[in-house]
Specification:
Blueprint lengths: L1 E7 L4 H11 L7 E2 L2 E8 L2 E8 L4 E6 L9 H6 L3 E4 L11 H14 L2 E2 L2 E5 L5 E5 L9 E5 L4 E8 L2 E14 L7
Parallel strand pairs: 3-7, 8-12
Antiparallel strand pairs: 1-5, 1-6, 2-5, 3-4, 8-9, 10-11, 11-12
């Protein structure tokens, strides 16, 4: 399988996918738009918010034997399209760390990243037991225990950005054992 990243209008990713599917029914391969759900507290009221993990990007999965160039114009002519990543002139599948990051959210997490289950060790370092943060511990740049959020740094095609993912604490490790 090859995966391609496509930049589209931010906050119109789902609209772009619906429009693409309606205008070009021949495009049947999977299109992914990973999202995350976090709790937001405003004036003491907690509500859930669902936002994009990669704002302005969708990911397309195409079999190795299918040439992306035969669908190139279908993507470009759909309203909201900006560009294929790296460039429109050199469309190449995702590779290395970019592919690893995207696949973490596409395959391991599912369509919406929920809360991770974590505990804190004796040095107050976060230890992820399960959830979307699993495998991303090295990318955590800030932990807010009160809000139940971990800020992680993601890289996609030489562009770095940070997002918050929610977690629930299942305990604190005291001594040498599990929580």
């Amino acid at each position: 399988m090859n995966y391609y990243a496509i930049q589209v209008k931010t906050r119109a990713e789902e609209k772009y996918i619906k429009l693409l599917r309606a205008m070009h029914p021949e495009i049947r391969f999977p299109i992914y738009f990973p999202k995350r759900r976090i709790d937001i507290r405003r004036q003491g009221v907690i509500s859930q918010s669902t936002t994009a993990v990669f704002p302005g990007y969708i990911f397309v999965e195409i079999d190795d034997d299918v040439d992306i160039h035969q669908y190139h114009w279908a993507f470009r002519r759909t309203e909201g399209f900006f560009r294929f990543l790296r460039s429109n002139q050199n469309i190449t599948p995702m590779a290395d760390r970019d592919l690893e990051t995207a696949l973490h959210f596409i395959k391991n997490v599912g369509p919406v990243a929920g809360k991770s289950r974590v505990y804190f060790n004796e040095n107050s370092r976060i230890v992820v037991v399960e959830g979307p943060l699993m495998g991303l511990e090295g990318r955590i740049i800030k932990v807010d225990k009160r809000k139940g959020r971990a800020k992680i740094k993601l890289d996609l095609y030489n562009d770095s950005f940070s997002i918050d993912l929610g977690f629930e604490t299942i305990g604190v490790l005291n001594g040498g054992g599990k929580p």
